Amino acid sequence: MAFLQILKALFQNTPFPFAGKWCILSDIDDLDEEDAGMLELLLGGAGSGKTYTVFEELTRLAEQEAPPALFLLVPEQFSFESERTLLRRLGPQHASRVQVLSFTRLVQTVFRELGGVAGKRMDDGARALLMSQAVRGVSDHLTLYRRHAADPDYLQAVLSLVAECKQCGISPDELNRTSEALEEGTLKEKTRELGLIYASYEALAAQTAQIDPLDDLSVLARRMPESRLFDGARVYVDAFKGFTAQEMQILAVLIRRTEKTVVTLCADTITDDSGEYGRFAPAIRTAARLRELAREHHVPVAKIRLLTENHRAADPALRHLEEQAFIPAPVPFEGAAPAVAVIPCPDRETECRFAARTVRRLLREEGGRCRDFTVVVRNLDDYQGLLEAAFEQEEIPCSIDRRDTILTDPLIVLLGAALRCVTDGWNSDDLFRLLKTGLSGFSPRSISLLENYVYQWRIRGSQWKQEWTWNPDGLSREISPESEKRLVHLGRLRRRFVRPLEALQRRLSGSLSGRGFAAALYRYLEEAHTARLVRFQVSRLDTAGEHALAERQARLWDITMDLLDKFVLVLGDTVLPAPRFAELFRLVAGMTDLGSIPQSLDAVQIGAADRIRFSAPQTVLILGANEGVF
Fold this sequence. Notes:
Radius of gyration: 30 Å
Strand content: 5-15%
Number of strands: 15
Strand order of the largest sheet: 1-9-2-8-7-3-4
Largest sheet: 7 strands, mixed
Distance between the termini: 9 Å
Helix content: 40-55%
Number of helices: 22
Shape: globular
Structural class: alpha/beta
């Protein structure tokens, strides 16, 4: 049922009896209270106090004279907020007794104890280059996927498959065994070829000196039994929607080694009568898997605590909405519901303007802080620019939870256009794209002179490398002295622009290795004085008050150098044609994104529904709650 339909069905002045309380459900093992202690599940719907209960117990334990080792395991996005909450509750002395970890920080913590931190770590770009090598190495053994071997989109799809296999604990051998068990047909062949590519990728990864972070949790699960960090500790696992197979392996070790592991899950019951399609079905399955995991390792399971009262929403209508939303037959709410408003808007721009003006009005009339507001959308790309403009117009600071691709940043555009130019026939559009990046060293007036002359005489391809002799005034019989001067000036501009590109083309010709490709691009940047121009652009943006944009351009130079390093580390002596290297450069650049640090702690939080993590907002505005969207 669409979100808007749910709201309409719930608030139609029909009676609904609401009652909330705490209750305890016995686990199916029916353990006595004194036997409970290793694994405990804390369940409850949204706002029922799961996180509050965890912090209360951590506070009580940390204030003891001799507390056990205390750990709080949360998703990456919650680590900062959790540390801040503990510091506020306990103060600096007692807060240091609780270690707040994400799975990533857990890996780092254990590896610092046991070793394994040192080494160059792969990112998505390095994995893409390694996958291109893996597919190329087994292409002779491929049938269905051979013609896609050089397709960047195919490489990305296979990389996603490998990442998912690793998260689910599936090895290349398991794919091969699955293929052998299947009947003859397309599915069998696809599985066999994917297993072959996966095995080739793993073999190449083992030969490099780099560490794949996707393997961190699997390595941690194997090495955690050697660690003494969690012996007799109390571990609280909070705010997770579910766990991958790798994370389950980590939890299996934790519940064996700790004095007690408490896991919170968002579910209002421990049984699922909806045929696994209920709103809490994934959490209920996770709870069942955790209990099964405990029994497999002979770990006692404490009685389940179920929190049933919504402590977050003081308004009855909001409580009713949380209780009845997304169930097959919701009961409408009786009475007025001022805390819930459904606003029809004709388009997205109107939605965004309404959201910004609503925040401005509530700040003016009711007070509060900008950070008390959160805006949620389904697809951030559809709303990002409109929301930024609307909130800027209302002079309201906002923080958008996103990571931007670097493909449209000037330095990457410059290198991409240069590569297309020298590998694809000196196309004038590519050359002017390069000139207009702001990093070419040419003034707008010089670029306009070149552009007018090129389009006037339809200059293309190799004509860029030849001397220009055509009259700048067009089809006049004679060239005037003034036109002669302009022609000489145009010639100087052309030579200054073309000379580094011709040198790049020479270096990219013939047999070319990954190391040679990276060196050729770096030499081009040197000869075009790009580093100096980047510094000038950063200084100009900083002076103009565009501090965030200036910082982004400064970081981009380091990211570009890191991209070139990847070609040296992964494809050092591998020989490929220059056009293939150009394709790989665009692929790696497209898989590299750049996050931005919020410029203010007091800002409206904006994010996509499947990514945003709320931080106790007082008002939430959901945009685009339409059929087929939410």
